[in-house]
Amino acid sequence: MITIDGLRKIFTTDQQDIKAVDDLNLSIKEGEIFGVIGYSGAGKSTFVRLLNRLEEPTSGSVVIDKQEITSLNTNELRLARQEIGMIFQHFNLLWSRTVKDNIAFPLEIAGVAKQEREARVQELIDLVGLSGREDAYPAQLSGGQKQRVGIARALANRPKVLLCDEATSALDPETTNSILDLLVDINQRLGLTIILITHEMHVIRKICHQVAVMENGKIVEQGDVLDVFLRPKQKVTRKFVEQVMGTPGEEESITELVEAYQEGKIVKLHFVGETANQALISQLARRFPIDINILQGKITQTQAGAYGTLFVQIVGDPAECSRALAHVADETSVEVEVIRDAE
Amino acid sequence: MLSNLFPNIDVQDFWVATYETFYMTILALIGTVIFGILLGLLLYMTTKGGIWENKYVNWATAAVVNVFRAIPFIILILLLFPFTEFVVGTIRGPNAALPALIIGSAPFYGRLVEIALKEVDKGVVEAAKSMGAKTRTIIFKVLLPESMPALVSGLTVTAIALIGYTAMAGVIGAGGLGNYAYYFGFQRREFDVVFLCTVAIVIIVFIFQFIGDRITNKLDKR
Predict the structure, then answer these.
(1) What value does the mean pLDDT take over residues A288-304?
(2) Where does a domain end: A189, A217, A244?
(3) Alpha-carbon distance B167 to B180, whole Å?
(4) What is the set of domains in chain B, with CATH numbers?
(5) I need a labelling partner for A13 at 20 to 30 A (CA). Which of A247, A324, B117, B152 fits?
(6) Alpha carbon A253 to chain centroid distance?
(7) Last residue of a domain, one of A184, A210, A244
(8) C-alpha dist (Å) from residue A127 to A86, A185, B96
(9) Chain A environment of B117 (Cβ under 8 Å)
(10) Which run of H or E residues covers position A119?
C-alpha cells in the first residue's frame, strides 16, 4: 500500500545541516494501523509531513497506492492530497466556520456539488458522533469534539490513507481513549490505512498493529506491536515500553516475594497476545485442586491481545501444581517460568 | 435653535460640507480596502516562508509602503497634484481628494492587513494545503475569512485616520467639513463654525467606531 524508500530530509541552516529524516525505508500494508513513536526532535513530525509533501523530501521516494507521490507536479500533488486525509495535534479547524462548514471544506476544495456535499457532511457527523452540534463553532467545542471534527473533515473525500500527527497529544487521557476508539472503529469499518505518530506508548499499545521507533531521524526498531513490547532491543524502545508497563525493578521485588511467601510454588506467567484464555486464573483454579494467589503483575491490552506478566503463588498438592502448569504451557500461549519450586 | 447657538452657520452649507466629508471618506475607504488588501496580501504571501516567497517583490512592496507612509499627508496631496489633475481632470472638489486619500491610507491599511494575516494560524493554512487546496482557495476561503475581525477593526482605525485626512484635504480645496471650518470659520474669525464642524467630525468618528466595533464583534467566533 505504502512504500517508502531511502526517504531523507535535511534542513540546512547557517551553522549546520540537520538530518531530520535520514534514509528511511518502510513498507505499510493496506488496512494497517501503523504507529511511529519517538521523542520530540526524533523527526517523526517531519516524517509524516514528507508523506503528503507538506515538507519536500531532500531525496527518496514515497509511493502510496501505486502512485509515486514524490514525482508528482504541483497540480497532480493537489489531487493526490485529496485522497490522503490528515489530522493534527491542534486540530487546525477554521474558527470562522461551523462544524458543518468545516467538514464541508475539503468537499468544496474537491468541487463536490452542494447537495451531495450536505448529504456527505451529515453522514460524517453521524460517523464521528457529533449529531446535534452541526451548527456550533469550534470555539464552543471541547478538545475531543474538535478532534472529531478534524477526523470527519479528514475522511470527507474518502481517503485511502489517514495521517495522524500527534492527534491525541493535546487531549486528556479519557478523551484520548475515545478518539483512539473512534480511529479503530474507522479502521475496521472503512478498511482505512492509518499512519499515526505519537510520543505516547499507550497510543501504540492500544490501537496499532505495527510500530516503528524513531530516534535521530532513523527507524531504530520496527515490528509487530507485541514483538516490540516483548523483546525491545533498543534502549529508547525499552523506555517507551516502561511508559506503559512500569519500570521492571524485578530483581529485588522477586526476592522479596520469595521471602514473603514461603509456601508453594511461585510462578511468573508471561502473557503475550493471549486472547482465548482471558480467564486463565479462574479456569486453573476450577480445573485443578489448587489455590492461586496473585502476588504482583501488570496486564495490558493491545490490538493483538493481552500483554504483560503476573507473579502468582500456587499452593496445593505438588503433582497437581505441576499438572496445572503443564496445562498452561501446552494449551495457551502464556509462557510459564517457575521462580521457586515447592520444597 | 441651531441659528441661536451658532449665528454664523449656514445650514445648507453645513449639510453639504458634512455630505462631502462622508462622500470622500466612504469612496476613499472603498479604494483603500481594495489596494490595502492587495498590498497586505502581497507582503504576506511573498515574505520568507510564504506561499509566493520572493525576496525582491517583498522588498519592493515594503519599500513602496514605507515611502508613502513616511510622507506627511499634506505634502502628499501637493506632490500628487499633477497625478490628480491627470486622473480626475481637476485639483478642486471632493473627487480630486480621492487619489491622495487612497494613496495616503492604502499603505497604512496594507500594513494592518499584513499583521492580520500573520495572526492566522499557520496550522490552518497547512491543513488546507493537506486537503489539496489551490492558493486561490487558501486566500479566499482561509486567510481572508479567518482574519476578518482584524481586517475590519483595522479598517475602522483606517477610516478614522481617513476622516482626519479629508479635513486636511479640505483646507486646500477638497470641500467637506475641513474646508468649511477653515474658510468660513477660521478665515472669517467665526469660531462657532469651527466649533460645530469639530462636533460634527467627532460624531462621524464615533459613528464609524461604533459600526466597526459592532461588525468586528459579530464576526469574531473565537
Answers:
(1) 84
(2) A244
(3) 9
(4) 22-219 (1.10.3720.10)
(5) B117
(6) 30
(7) A244
(8) 17, 10, 61
(9) none
(10) helix A114-127
Report the pLDDT value the prediction gives residue A164, as an integer from 0 to 100.
Answer: 96
* Grid cell listed for A170: 493535546
| Complex-level ipTM | 0.87
Which residue pairs, CB below 8 angstroms and at least 24 apart, start in A286-291?
A: A287/A324, A287/A327, A288/A316, A288/A320, A288/A321, A288/A323, A288/A324, A288/A327, A289/A316, A289/A317, A289/A320, A290/A314, A290/A315, A290/A316, A290/A317, A290/A320, A290/A321, A290/A324, A291/A264, A291/A315, A291/A316
Identify the residue whose cell numbers are 498438592.
Answer: A317
Q: What grid cell was written down for B65?
A: 509602503
Give residue A283's pLDDT: 85
Confidence of residue B214 (pLDDT cuts 50, 70, 90): very high
CA distances from A188 to A33, A180, A181, B164 (A): 10, 12, 11, 65
Whether residue A135 lies within 8 A of chain B, CB to CB, comes out as no
Are A309 and A244 a contacting pair, CB within 8 Å?
no
Please give the pLDDT value at position A81. Answer: 95
Determine contact: A261 vs chain B, CB below 8 A: no
